[in-house]
């Protein structure tokens, strides 16, 4: 399989019949009859520079990501089917520290090779499109990167100069490309086929990367662009049109400017197959059970064969077509779709790899991998205050503060030029590492001084993506009431009551920055642990103010949060997916890294915007990590002292209310 690596697949695939006579040796091709041919369309999508199976934030190998692993699945398909084509669906250029290392440290001058392009060339990608993250580092960076590709890249709805209609635009890169191939049928006879690929990206790129796009490029509605360009592509005599749709599977009915337009796009006449992505989900699969306009059983999107191959190399998408020769062209007789994973996870969340890395792919970018390791271990900024979470559940906390600061900074930029510009921006963040089942060492603890990229994993455990929701003042209050379920009800005047509700996970204890408030623990919790109203008249949140004035229940606010919370995770008031006004393309981790890089020195001292309402004569006990004792004097607005040993290696502390 020397052709899989090191040389351009494009040259092989256009070499003519002699190079494809080998197809009859492959078992998959033998399933076709004379005049019929199987074509296996493989997809990678949303790689986000995940080339090695490595988590750079945690600084450790993992089995759930990496194009080097996906390459083993690709090689297996090529081994069993002579007629195959590999296409990438975008978002390859940014998304992990390797991408940031190239952009912010090494640079991407004309003539240099980007590691993701090196790896994609090595695997043998034969065509691709742009994702929204391709624009994160600017257009010059993008063009310099694409110049190294051994395969065509297409995008039909991004223009440097717009015409009267989309097909009159001067597009940033070619809108489509025709790949001339030869297919071997079931009898070993070779026939030509012309495959057209056309690409699309969410038009929201002009908002998400406004600083790079404004005055330089515009983005058209996906469906409108397809309706204009696909007939032109068809007019060039193609047999098959594959839409590379870097857009998710959203509503079935088209709306102008929609971000997730895969289903309406599939309805455009002339498109035969649709490859999707962007949403970091898997199709066919349970992610889309019951979704209108798609069929998991048949693998169709809007009635057309389609696939979505997860993210970070977690899956390889596969659309199998049985084609029949009719006259001088081809017709689709049948099809099937699947997303093949590189790992499996059992009921206990244990991961088992299903493939090994392909050494040629890993080796092709080994120098950049090592440079990235050096980069994540090297300081990218400084923190003027220690970042720790030992007391995040009893007082305003610096490890939560830095997350809120970064989220507010990011969303403030994203709201500029939108209908929501000028609305007050709040930020909701929770402590992820706060003991509990993780044990007495399961806390964030980053000392003051240099801060490295890998420290960000200590601040933000999960690969969530940033969101903004628009809520009312009344919903802000209930959001906080839901968070206040972290605490037991406390009796005034009684000593040493246990404070923390052991059934309440710390990741549901949202602190909302931008308002001030107190928590009255003498009140019962308004919501139970699952988010259902348990005590409708309860009011734990008191003295709630914005800008020094009592919070107006009817006022509107933008709250920065994450996709889990905004889409209903934890059952928080104001968060059911319907209040989302901004879906960021960036992970919350990336936002924190960018914030640190831009600030240089961060000073995330807790600002004390929340505290407990005083309860005369009451003290409470809680357990935290023993190392927290070194930070007792730093706690603002609360009197805390050591109170002996807790259970299972925890230390016990006393809080005076």
Q: How would you describe this protein?
A:
The protein has 657 residues and is of the alpha/beta class. The chain folds into two domains: 2-373, Purple Acid Phosphatase, chain A, domain 2 (4-Layer Sandwich), CATH 3.60.21; 382-656, 5'-Nucleotidase, C-terminal domain (5'-nucleotidase,  domain 2, Alpha-Beta Complex), CATH 3.90.780. It is 21% helix and 28% strand. It has 16 helices and 39 strands. The strands form ten sheets. Strands 9, 10, 12, 13, 14, 15, 16 and 17 form an eight-stranded mixed beta sheet that branches. It has a six-stranded mixed beta sheet with strand order 6-5-4-1-18-19. A hairpin with a 2-residue loop joins strand 16 (300-301) and strand 17.
How is the topology of this model organized?
Blueprint: H1 9-13, E1 36-44, E2 54-55, E3 60-61, H2 67-80, E4 84-88, H3 97-106, H4 115-123, E5 127-129, H5 139-146, E6 153-154, E7 158-161, E8 170-171, E9 176-184, E10 190-200, H6 205-208, H7 210-213, E11 218-219, H8 222-235, E12 240-245, H9 262-266, E13 273-276, E14 282-283, E15 294-295, E16 300-301, E17 304-309, E18 315-326, E19 329-341, E20 343-345, E21 351-353, H10 359-364, H11 366-376, E22 379-383, E23 387-388, H12 398-415, E24 425-429, E25 445-446, E26 449-452, H13 456-459, E27 465-472, H14 473-483, E28 497-498, E29 511-513, E30 516-519, E31 541-546, E32 549-550, E33 556-562, H15 563-566, E34 580-587, H16 588-599, E35 601-602, E36 610-612, E37 619-624, E38 639-645, E39 651-656
Parallel strand pairs: 1-4, 4-5, 5-6, 10-12, 12-13, 13-17, 22-35, 24-33, 28-37, 30-36
Antiparallel strand pairs: 1-18, 2-3, 7-8, 7-11, 9-10, 14-17, 15-16, 16-17, 18-19, 20-21, 22-26, 23-25, 24-29, 27-33, 27-34, 30-31, 31-32, 37-39, 38-39
Helix pairs in contact: 3-11, 12-16
């Amino acid at each position: 399989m020397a052709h899989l690596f090191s040389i351009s697949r494009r040259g092989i695939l256009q070499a003519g019949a002699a190079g494809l006579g080998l197809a009859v040796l492959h078992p998959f091709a033998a399933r076709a009859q004379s005049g019929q041919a199987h074509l296996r369309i493989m997809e990678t999508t949303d790689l986000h520079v995940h080339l090695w199976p490595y988590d750079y934030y945690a600084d450790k190998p993992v089995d759930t990501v990496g194009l080097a692993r996906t390459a083993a699945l690709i090689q297996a398909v090529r081994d069993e089917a002579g007629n195959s084509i590999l296409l990438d669906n975008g978002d390859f250029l940014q998304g992990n520290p390797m991408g940031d290392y190239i952009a912010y440290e090494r640079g991407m001058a004309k003539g240099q090779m980007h590691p993701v392009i090196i790896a994609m060339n090595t695997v043998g990608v034969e065509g691709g499109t742009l994702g929204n993250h391709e624009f994160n580092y600017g257009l010059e960076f993008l063009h310099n990167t694409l110049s190294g590709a051994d395969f065509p890249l297409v995008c039909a709805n991004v223009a440097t100069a717009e015409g009267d209609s989309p097909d009159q635009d001067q597009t940033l890169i070619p809108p489509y490309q025709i790949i001339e191939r030869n297919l071997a049928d079931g009898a070993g006879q070779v026939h030509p086929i012309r495959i057209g690929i056309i690409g699309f990206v969410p038009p929201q790129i002009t908002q998400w990367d406004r600083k790079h796009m404004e005055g330089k490029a515009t983005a058209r509605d996906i469906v409108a662009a397809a309706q204009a360009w696909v007939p032109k592509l068809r007019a060039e005599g193609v047999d098959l049109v594959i839409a590379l749709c870097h857009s998710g599977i959203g509503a079935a009915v088209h709306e102008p400017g929609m971000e997730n337009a895969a289903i309406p796009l599939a309805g455009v006449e002339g498109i035969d197959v649709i490859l999707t992505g962007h949403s970091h989900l898997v199709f066919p699969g349970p992610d889309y059970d019951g979704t209108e306009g798609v069929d998991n059983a048949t693998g169709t999107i809007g009635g057309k064969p389609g696939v979505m191959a997860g993210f970070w190399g977690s899956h390889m998408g596969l659309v199998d077509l049985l084609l029949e020769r009719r006259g001088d062209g081809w017709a689709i007789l049948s099809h099937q779709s699947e997303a093949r994973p590189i790992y499996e996870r059992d009921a206990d969340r244990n991961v088992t790899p299903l493939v090994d890395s392909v050494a040629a792919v890993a080796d092709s970018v080994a120098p950049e991998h090592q440079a990235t390791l050096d980069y994540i271990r090297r300081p990218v900024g400084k923190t003027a205050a220690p970042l720790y979470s030992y007391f995040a559940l009893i007082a305003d906390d610096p490890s939560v503060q830095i997350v809120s600061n970064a989220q507010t900074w990011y969303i403030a930029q994203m709201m500029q030029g939108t209908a929501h510009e000028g609305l007050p921006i709040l930020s909701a963040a929770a402590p992820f590492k706060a003991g509990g089942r993780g044990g007495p060492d399961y806390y964030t603890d980053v000392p003051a001084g240099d801060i490295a990229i890998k420290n960000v994993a200590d601040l933000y455990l999960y690969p969530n993506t940033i969101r903004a929701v628009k809520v009312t003042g009344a919903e802000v209050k209930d959001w906080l009431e839901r968070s206040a379920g972290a605490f037991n009800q406390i009796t005034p005047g009684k000593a040493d009551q246990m404070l923390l509700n052991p059934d309440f996970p710390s990741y549901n204890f949202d602190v909302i920055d931008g308002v001030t408030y107190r928590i009255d623990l003498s009140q019962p919790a308004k919501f139970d642990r699952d988010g259902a109203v348990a005590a409708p008249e309860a009011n734990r949140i008191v003295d709630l103010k914005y800008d020094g004035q009592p919070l107006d229940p009817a006022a509107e606010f933008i709250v920065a949060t994450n996709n889990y919370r905004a889409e209903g995770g934890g059952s928080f008031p104001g968060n059911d997916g319907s209040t989302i006004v901004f879906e960021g393309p960036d992970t919350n981790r990336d936002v924190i890294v960018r914030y640190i890089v831009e600030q240089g020195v961060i000073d995330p001292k807790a600002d004390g915007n929340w505290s407990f309402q005083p309860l005369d004569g009451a003290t409470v006990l809680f357990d935290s990590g023993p190392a927290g004792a070194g930070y007792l004097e730093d706690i603002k607005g609360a009197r805390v002292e050591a109170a002996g040993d807790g259970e299972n290696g925890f230390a016990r502390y006393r809080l005076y209310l």
